[in-house]
């Protein structure tokens, strides 16, 4: 009898653990990634620097992170934008804005995925980037140079920052990224996906926005969170998760007999 009770209790405890994990996955709004420089929870940051300042009312990045996002070979990732000669300012501003969005936005929850990497436990995947933002990024970078199409991996890091691997040749961006979709989707291992929707549609994430008009990505995150979770999912979890706790209490009231 004692053995049976122990098995039942173990099964219930497993249920509780699975329930907690599933509930965590439904928390898709106003969240920060579990990554290298992100805050644990979003909140106000009054002094966010320059291009990161649109997120100051509610941010996943600190002031220091926002400052480093604007630096060449910063301590954030030791990444050298000028690995094939000087990147044009018009191009670099898009990569700074990309970094600000990644580090600061609390509205990427629907696209956060768990990963097994030494420097982060979560990443974003297939974030629907508004087509104008992607097209402008590609257009402004066409005259800059690079030597790779996937900037997440394959670099030579022996100098302490990224350098082109042996055998890789520097070419204009549109050699490695012939279309806007190729740039936005391939450069960070499909962190972004080119959306067919336009800015202001409420259906795509804007890399650029005017904070005086509010953060349009809040509406976008809500739309996709509801579509992914189902209208009744959040209401159902409290009832589902309370059941195993009630059963655990009931079992604890039953005396063990040998």
From TrEMBL:
The keyword Disulfide bond applies. One of its GO terms (cellular component) is external side of plasma membrane. Residues 1-19 form the signal peptide. InterPro entries: Folate_rcpt, Folate_rcpt-like. Residues 31-206 form the Folate receptor-like domain. GO terms for molecular function: signaling receptor activity. Keywords: Disulfide bond, Receptor, Signal. Pfam families: Folate_rec (PF03024). It comes from the Eukaryota. One of its GO terms (biological process) is sperm-egg recognition. The keyword Metal-binding does not apply. Belongs to the folate receptor family. This is Folate receptor alpha. The gene is LOC101841460.
């Amino acid at each position: 009898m004692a053995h049976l009770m122990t098995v039942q209790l173990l099964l219930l405890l497993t249920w509780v653990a699975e329930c907690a994990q599933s509930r965590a996955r439904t928390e898709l709004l106003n969240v920060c990634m579990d990554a290298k420089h992100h805050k644990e929870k979003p909140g106000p940051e009054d002094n966010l620097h320059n291009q990161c300042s649109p997120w100051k009312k509610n941010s996943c990045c600190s002031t220091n992170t926002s400052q480093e996002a604007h630096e060449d070979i910063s301590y954030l990732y030791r990444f050298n934008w000028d690995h094939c000669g000087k990147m044009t300012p018009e191009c670099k501003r898009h990569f700074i804005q990309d970094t600000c969005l990644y580090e600061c936005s609390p509205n990427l929850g629907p696209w956060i995925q768990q990963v097994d990497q030494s420097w982060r436990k979560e990443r974003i995947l297939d974030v629907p980037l508004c087509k104008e933002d992607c097209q402008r990024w590609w257009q402004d970078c066409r005259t800059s140079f690079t030597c790779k199409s996937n900037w997440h991996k394959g670099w030579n890091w022996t100098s302490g920052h990224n350098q082109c691997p042996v055998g890789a040749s520097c070419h204009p961006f549109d050699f490695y990224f012939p279309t806007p979709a190729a740039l936005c989707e391939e450069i960070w291992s499909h962190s972004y996906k080119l959306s067919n929707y336009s800015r202001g549609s409420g259906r795509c994430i804007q890399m650029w926005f005017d904070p005086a008009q509010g953060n349009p990505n809040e509406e976008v995150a809500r739309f996709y969170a509801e579509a992914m979770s189902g209208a009744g999912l959040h209401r159902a979890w409290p009832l589902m998760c309370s059941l195993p706790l009630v059963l655990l209490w009931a079992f604890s009231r039953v005396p063990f007999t040998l």
